[in-house]
Batch of 4 targets.
Target 1
Amino acid sequence: MNARLLIPSIAVRSVLALGFVFLGYVALHERFAAFDAAVLRFGLDVLGFETASVGPSNLTVEAGGKFSIYAIVTGACSSAAGVLGIVAVTVFLLPGAAWRRVVGGGVAATVFVAFNVARIASIVLLGWWLAVAGTAVSVISLLAPALVCAALVVYRRSGMLLRLSACLVGGLFVVLLIDVVRGHDYSAGMISYHALAGPVLTFGALAVAIMFLWRSIVGPAPAPP
Amino acid sequence: MGTIFNAVMAVALLLLAWGFAQFVLWYRWGTAELRRSGHGRLRLTESDRFVFMIACLDEELVIGPTVEALRLLVPSALVIVIDDGSDDRTGELAAAAGATVVRRELPSARIGKGPALNHGFQTLVAIACERGFDSERTIVGVLDADGRLSLDAVSAVLERFDRPRVGGVQLPVRIRNKRTFLARMQDFEFWGMSAIAQMARVRTRSVSLGGNGQFTRLAALESIGPAPWSRALTEDLSLGIEMTLRGWELDCASGAWVSQQGVETVRALLRQRTRWYQGHMLCAHKARQLWESPDVPRWTALETTVYLLSPSFVMLPWSIAFTLGLAAVVANAAGLSAIPFDGTEVNVLQYAAFWYVLTFVPPVVMATLYARRSEDEGMLGSILKAHASVFYAYVNMAAGWRALGRIVLGRRTWEKTRRVQEPALELEEAA
């Protein structure tokens, strides 16, 4: 093998970073899931839900007599991928002052965990809302943001990224509307929301965390020349 | 199996997020630069000099019209053609068109574009001394033998060099011979994503210099030494980094362009891209120097590092993750497997929608820009090209793996891109 590959080059750093994420996920995803479940349970308790732990990352959530679910925080749903990704980028990939990387990486990882738990909690909150609100109120509450999103998509002065985001979010509300109109089953709405919004929100949060990390290492973005 | 698949998806998530973060910055900064840039307004003054250098090996099909076009566009320019040991009539045709021809003979010829340009640079320096050129006001343009400048290129480039710290300016590239699907896809690639990325990098002063439409200040070249271009396979990328290390800024003349021939076969495209990726990967070690240099702003260092990381950190691993994800969707749709996604069997349509959005939306966004900037492409055609570009990217992925293999095996031979004969009408229009 060419000796060039054995020195600490960018190629080697890339392999180390990606290997760290892969192996870290295999080894730690259950721990991350358990941690996220514990934080989630704490947050839901604060919000007034009645929760009980059934296993390391399994819990039951109830609110009154209308809402009762059995929730599982899986490894894929946990903050494992995001946190490991941020750590990998911070440790293996980006040069720059160590203290900037540590602070930036630490803040980015913390914000990502908080966002991910909030994302999971939002699934519960959506289900609770669909369970306790009547059909008419549910339809109105989903239709209103869908229309706002549609307006942003067609508004001429919206930027491309805003239009794109509005299109995705609006589409999600439309899917939820279909679920409600079809049978008003809160669990169906939760499954749709989880499957459609979950990966995009996780990925978006990680992208924002990476941009934050870049900025923390090099400072504010430069002005045009 | 489920855990392994999810671990691969965790890696894919990082790659996607990293790539998306880069895309968002490039899109925001690139479109801002596009709005800001106009056609160049500066005209050549007495003290401004333009020198064009064209390294040629067997370019008789295209070199004559290229030199003629340059002399029409900038009559006062000095055109130096470096004949790198051609077997055909390249030197003769270039001289007949009005170029100063410098001939290299074997065994020193045909060892790469960098050494050929350095040979021409020695001639340029001698002429500059003799005629008293001001090295701060002398602009050296490097073109491919098939390169044609847009009418406003000179004034647009001059305007960028009006800032004294600018050492290099790159023109966006367009493809001229859009007769084949491959050539049209290259135009979509260059005039779409690549051009917007270059415009975005104006913000970080880290525009990547290319082998065609590359303009440098003579003083900046002299600050590197008597042989500014390295023997790297991507001597242009290497030159840009060397300039950055010496505190020069790199800019892009966003409103103008240089056109060139696109390759017309998959084999030729693979060969061209392999050379590019091999050179790109071999330049990546310079990232460290950027961070250590006190003359390099941190954003410049970061952006260049992210750019240098692209093949090894994003493209090669993504080629595996994307293919696995695609295979999982297809296998699931065919009823061969259930996707172990999120611990549950998620509806394959939802999973496919997720992959579709993440995979195709960025090129579709670029397609809308491309359609607006292209006079011969409609919105629908551009959006179809955006979808095709995801699969066209497999050529780049194959080239990336081939380049890695060549690095491992220590192969560094120079595989030159061959030209095609163009119809006379196209050449006249380009001129």
Target 2
Amino acid sequence: MTTPPIADILPTDTAELPKVLMLGWEFPPVINGGLGVACHDLCIALSKYSNVTMIIPKSNPDFVVKNLNLIGLNTIDAKTLRNVGYTDNYKKVKQVHFIDTHLNPYYNGNGSPINDLQDLNSKYLKKIQIGDETAEIFQIDDLYGGDVIEKVTVFGKLAAKLAMSLDFDIIHAHDWMTMIAGMEIKAKTGKPLVVHVHSLEVDRGGPHSKGWVYQVEKHGMEVADLLMPVSNFTGHIIHDYYQIPWSKIYPVHNGIRPVKPFKSEPMFKEKMVLFVGRLTRQKGPEYFVDIAEKVLQTDQNVRFVMAGTGEYFNPLLEKAAQKGIAHRFHLTGFLNLDKVRQLLSRADVYVMPSVSEPFGLSAVEAVQFGIPAVISKQSGVAEVLKGSLKFDYWDVHRAAGYILRLLHDDVLTEKIREDAYKDLDFISWDHSAKRVVDGYRSYRLLPAGV
Amino acid sequence: MPSVCFYFQVHQPFRLKRYSFFDIGKDHFYEDDEKNKLILDKVSEKCYIKTNRKMLELINRHKGKFKVSYSISGACLEQFENHRPDVLQSFIDLAKTGCVEFISETYYHSLSFIYSKDEFRRQVEMHKEKIKTYFDQTPKVFRNTELIYNNEIAAFVEKMGYKAILCEGVDRYLGKRSPNFLYQPAGTLKIKSFLKNYRLSDDIAFRFSDRGWTEWPLHADTFASWVHKVAGNGEVVNLFMDYETFGEHQWEETGIFDFLDHLPKEILSHPDFDFKTISEAADQYKVRDIYDVPDYTSWADAERDLSAWLSNPMEKEAAARIYKLEENVKKTGNPDLMDVWGKMQTSDHFYYMCTKFWSDGDVHKYFSPYDSPYDAYIYYMNVLADFETTVEDALKDSKGAKKTIRKKEPSI
């Protein structure tokens, strides 16, 4: 499965293609999580079926994505924003209660939105010298640090201004960070708004989340014309926890970037069971410790490795020690992609005990490396990986039984590996992109003739 | 004068419970008693009781002109004995009419012919005994599990004394010939093959309630008119199907019982047509040609081969492992171990492990008590691991098994 060079797959005449204004938050080289990767890869694939213009808070001028009109708010001259009016759609959201969302790993600030564009300009726009030109740049370094509410609001205002000078048929936003921008642009231009849902406050903070972010999400999804959650699982959350009617929920499963898997020599004589992910409530890392304990009671020749970091790091360390399994339990801390792949090239079983996982690309990455995956049913990826063993995240007994069976049964391991490879044929960004455009069309969101 | 030959398969497996890796060595009771009883009750109410009542009524109404044949697996008969003697009695009542024939099969509804001829013979004999006990008949007709068939099986059961054998009418071997005649299996002398007319059989068994089917809703007179078309171009119309078609696969609400109620009358409205049991038809009609089936065929799935049970490595591994135990289990001489071993041979266990996801997977899923084919395999292999140890222990103990394996679970 290799992707042909972008140039080869481009239609020569793109006049009839839909013009999509994409609103991104994370994008290379600023990537904090899976959202950036998913956004980037979807856009690339989508550019085969549409003309994509993307607005993101920050982009490196050196980072050029072929066939993608990439506009970072930090690279534009503020003059282009002048004399364009703006609505105050975000104020609707502002009026809801402010509750600290301490459970949200992405957001810990408690600032208040600001109203005056001049203040924003002085705070976020900075003059720099590029050759002979003076340009003003939008200065956001850490997308989730500091006052993220302010940043999201500023992004919304500036993106809306910018959008007035652009030509597009449809607005495609991603998650709550760009929903305000999406609503602003929709209000000003009347263009339909599609919101791609990669992750929700209910996933991150639990079913009782009701903070500012939740309110933004709820309002944004109500305003949107169509929602594209990354799985049916997330579609259910949108319906059940945000009371959005099914009629505008249209799931689009994520794709995956093809990789060249490789195998490495084992690091130790025991078998390796691997977890990769942020160590946060959402990923269910403490269940991994319970599973490990259960497996080790029966079979001591197994090591459990957790790659990732997060606020559960220390508690997990303590929990493993308390259970007396620390000698078989390893927390690596944060690992870059190369190091993660080093682990994938050695692992015998992959476990994803997520409590609420909109998709779960990491499990697909494990499958690419030929590792049988034991995954929670509370995940989107469970819908597309037939070749996997599935358990309810709390059912530690069942997960442990699966792992033991896999470790002792080559026939099963090989069979699941084979079936999962077949699943990979159906998990691609090209499939996702096609479905996105089909969604635009079947919901009649595009102008006639497009 | 063509004859309509109805044959119904009655079978329920002993399903295994969700036997975890952690149960190995600790829990020696494998069956999901609760689920087996639940399903047996459900199917008894929806199908067996109602359909048997209807059959008895039809036989009486038509004064012996309506005849049918059954094969009831030993595994199913045992479950009737244990939980539904009323159902068993209703079959006995049918047997007493003289219009019902009972057919031989392997006691455990197993794939034994493929793995062990000795075991196959043992199970067929066991089943024959059981049929004799309950229905006072000595079967003369054989049908193998899920109509699994080839020349070799036909020749083998001919030597065991059977005069007829049932099989699927598979296009790739039948060619342009009609299934509506009796055939001579290649390499045999006397035994006759009855080929399922899958078009007409499946009209009832599968398509009856399909609202997308152009013939929906199907009425008995229409169906009878299709059967009557065979006049002049056939001698038997073999309508073979699962008995659970009536009331279970096709719910009562679909009108299946009304259909059944009218069918004999409509068929008999043509003076040339009658109903016969398989044995009667075998006596009446001559074979018209050779049916040469070198490879295994069956009535399952689109492929009509063994792929419903033995196409993936899990199924093959599980089957190979259970038959590998034959020598040791038989050496123990322990009837309880023999019984557990037999029940684990039931073809359904392998059917649940099938991973032909994108075509027939849905049907397999419908019947499976488990979440996935992997689960089916995992529970089976966990059970097998425990059973292997039990057999080994039994062999070490000269007196036989140390522990009674079939002890029921304590009720809480």
Target 3
Amino acid sequence: MSYLKITNLSARLAGSDTRILRDVSLSVDRGQVHGLVGESGAGKSMIGKAVLGILPRSVEIPSGSIELDGVDLLQLAPAERRRRIGASCALIPQDPLTALNPSRRIGGQITDRLVDILGWDRARADARALEILGEVQIADPARVLRCYPHELSGGMRQRILIASAFAAEPKLIVADEPTTALDVTVQKQILKLIAAMQARHGTALLFVTHDLGVVSKVCGSLSVLYGGLVVEETGVRDFFAAPRHSYSRALLAATPKYTDPLASLVPVPDAVIAAAQAQVAAADRRWPARAERWPHG
Amino acid sequence: MADLFAVEDLRLSLPDMTRKPLIGAAPRIEILKGLSFTLPRGEILGIVGGSGSGKSTLGRAMVRLLQPTGGAVRFDGQDITHLTEAALRPLRRRFQMIFQDPMSSLNPRHRVGQLVAAPLRLHGVDGADRLAAQALDHVGLSRDFARRYPQELSGGQRQRVGIARAIALRPEFILADEIVSGLDVSSQAQVLNLLEALVKDLGLTLAFISHDLSVIRRLCSRVIVLHQGVIVENAATAQVFANPQASYTQELLDAIPLPDPDQIWT
């Protein structure tokens, strides 16, 4: 059984008909990396946020389920849901510059969660912070724990956020565009680090990105999203060998590829967008049939 | 063909505000450490490098948003290295810039039409509105976009407005600083195609700053690779990709994640 199983998940702006996710289903097992791919506004980050229970207040989930280890998070009382997610999930955020509090030292920012949410004692949390920084190949971790974020480079801060995510041995990690803010050489180091940590800890990883190049390096499977709808879900090797959906093919053709400059950077054709939009409209016609539910209430 | 830009031993240092003592001047850090190259008319020059390599500083020195501390920048034979702002004024309409982030470079209180006409008015050009409308045509935005505000547009459309504003004065040179890095792959492809067509149609010379060698390969005829304020490679694009001379160029190439699961990273 999959560790994370999302079934027919829909989301919309509260009190309106503006749909954000449409009948999304996917699953990720322990030790697997699943990519969520799409253009901005496709809903890929929203799926990650729904799983972690950090959707904006303006977004509600009228139908669907998010099962974590067999328990539907949306059926739980808010406090219980938070406790469960906090104990077993973590996030690697996009922007290492804003994700850390600039006025606090690194050490406390890693141990907060261990002490406050998981109830570890201070000495154990401190020891763990030191250990996990070593694991993400930070030289002199004892010094770095005493640093403020501005004293460290962007790549270093992203390493710290990765360490922080893995510190409490979560079963599931959501990585939301973790390397978009970094330059290519640092991106390569960080992706290799995330892949190595994920493999060593056997974590289930939901990897949100707009870059198919990145997907081909770290993911085993992926879902391609358009307008909040999964248009294709498949294994990475199958996807790059022969993407099935016309939108997936167009997205791949639009991706830059320096080894084949003429066959890359082709804009998504209007006909492909029209076909994807028709599919979204067809999904919307099925929408009213579902039972309405208010998990945020 | 004559060189539009000739840059000789360009040096630029800026005060390091993170190390500024409470009283007294901040120590200066050297960002550009003696760069020399020429840019012939009609070429698209790619400037690539990691963050902090000095590529944006180089671009800003070329269009004199920053004043070099050493060396010389010649534009169309004229030394512009230390010209005053007043002396630069008539030259400014000949070199324009497109910025990275269209959201922060387009005034949210101005309509697209005003934004594109602003540089024309600033330089006292007759028929500013008509020329602005023409510029919008050139970038493929229909006339009714002139009445909209930047926040009503998508990222790709906003970047087209940035391009329209840069071409409205019919400059000879445009500096494009990371103009597609915030866009989705599809809008990125559209903007690059547009830029390529404009360079041909309007006879522009372009310097294209990017951290993405894939994009450079597609667009540029020549590439300068910057690393820590020094040019480590300056060659024709095809040559840079087929046979990179500098180890740093090779490192940059190896770090690009190709959309191909068979590419193995070591």
Target 4
Amino acid sequence: MRRALLAALTGLLVACGKPVAGPDMDVILADKPARTLAEYGFFQDVSAREPARGVVAYDLINPLFSDHASKHRLVFVPVGEAAAYNGDDVFDFPVGSVLIKTFAFAPDMRQPKEGERYRETRLLIRKADGWAAYPYVWNEDETEATYAPAGDWLDVAFVDPAGEPVSIEYRVPNQNQCKTCHQMGDDIAPIGPKARNLNHEGPYGKMQLADWSARGILSGLPDAPPAVPSVAGMNASVEGRARAYLDINCAHCHRAEGSASNSGLWLGYDEAEPTKLGIGKHPTAAGRGSGDAVFVVAPGEADNSILTYRMASTEAGIAMPELGRALIDEDGLELVRDWISGMDAY
Amino acid sequence: MRILMMGAAAAVLAACGGGDEQADAGADIDITAGQPAADGAVALEPGDDFQARLQTMLIEAEKGSTITLPEGTFMMTDGLSLDVDGVTITGAGQGATILDFSGQRGSGEGLLITSDDVTLENFSIQETKGDGIKSKGADRIIYSDLTVEWLGDPDPENGAYGVYPVESTDVLVERVTVRGASDAGIYVGQSNNIIVRDSVAEKNVAGIEIENSTHAEVYGNVVTQNTGGVLVFDLPDLPVMGGNSTRIYNNDIYSNNTPNFAPPGNIVAGVPAGTGVIIMANDKVVVENNRFEDNQTVQVLITAYTEPFTDEDYNPLPRNVVVKGNTYGTGGNNPDGRLAEIAPLLGGSLPPIVWDGVTRWGENEDIDNNIVIDEGEGVGFINIGFGTYPMDLANVSPSMERPGGEAFGELEPVTLSHSE
């Protein structure tokens, strides 16, 4: 049935003079975003389940927490070109590359594939003058995702991975909010596709970086690229896992080039200076986000640290990250609490 | 499957008709009411989806355009943001156009500006959950004829900063009123070339604060009913440090006696209620021709940074501070905070000008802070003589002798590249 449908669709496409399949570089590189996601040609079907040729699924060792949403990530690099490897930061993707991320919920997130529904798809497109971020919101039938520059609020209800029913107003970020997290100095940049986040077995059951290299979409891969510890795994120390958690959840803003640069709180995986990591650091502009605590991280005192106070809040003006979540990441919070509790108190 | 198939066919048919169509409007948002006029100005109409239509306009604004907000009160559900250079957002006036954020569900501020050459004028912002208006890395910004306020009694649940430019060059704040901020009403941080003038800061913890910034002028402002009036601070462990060259003049700084309501942990939570001006850890600061009245702890406090720190690039001492030609009414008669511990040694009240007398930190030698008190003979001064922090009351050697520093010459007037 599906094959027949595809054949029919292909016939229609040919009939009206559109390219048969695959990403459309004219749409990708246009000055303005397309009205619908389908126009880019990243998918063979209207519901975006079947990637077009050259559109490659990938995942990260540690995802950013987004209210327990499932995330389906895809990368497209123009035919004949490759992203250049970078050891510390995001790969250097050629113009025309696209990162596609779809956010989905199932009624019961303990079985995230069963009855899964796509809610929004975010595009990061490498234009000639830098990256651009565009949000698309799916309709009820999941037949069309439409450009939504102002974002949206979606009523989402599900059973969370711990078995608790939750009901939230899920925020699809507006286009500027996309930039807030993706800020890199004056430009915007992807967050996830760094060697250390990609260096594991990906969705095709292969070591992801080697697979990218074999597909020709990554050049310059060294023999031993770095990897962050898995936050969920038990193979690394609490400190290593907590630092990996802060790296993917916080450091896109909390770094010298990020939206929170003026805080002086830098939470990247490579940060070595204790004060910059918040240890014994006074807040800068936290306001009531301080929760009456004196230090961002008070060693040995998880209950007295601003970091954990803000992670444990869902209230605007207190909650961190400021954008992208309506729920508390209980597992992440527990990990960061364990990290702080394990430090020698002053 | 059937739904999918029909959807697929519909999508393909649509693609035939308008596959190259580029969007210029939001998904479900009709912004036809906001079509550009001949001069590039767009006027926003009141009505449904106001927030979404306004945010869409802010995203799709063209460089150099003006967005006009209508008269009325509009409930916001999320923070607004602008990232396009050269845009002016103008309303029907302070109190006439009100963006009410009491139902805000997300974002750390009411309005966030991250582009250059932006002008904000003639509207009010109320009850944001975090900061009021923040501009970050936004050079040549103008905040003009705005009100940012939290209503009701002073409340630690209020947002931290009212007007909050940071990491910017050329900042103008004029004829702005800020009330109720649980940190600073008008706060300029990590910036260079700053003018704050003709504004009103009242009922905040700090009225006006210039922090880790250089070349600032603060003049013609009314600063009252805050915990502390005007603060000039430099703090450690920040990307931009070395605050210097600030001139505070012709301000009316009176009755700043509101009990401190800042959430503990924040630096301003240590500001004693009843303080007119605090100069902390800055270089080249002039306080001149201001009127001080009824600040019940102290009119002018000159102090080092009091907390331990590890930042090797940081200088915690005030240097080259000139206090001259101000007028002083009553004050110092009801000291609060740490200074309340000192006052009994001095007969219960404090003189208008107090210096903590800290001249060294860590393993360093004493320095000559060069504090210049150029006031009439009748104006009281005290050097508490702490020498270093942490403070040790047993080692205090107060002196009423003026330090006899030498003026370092006039600060160059601040000239903004975008405004007179």
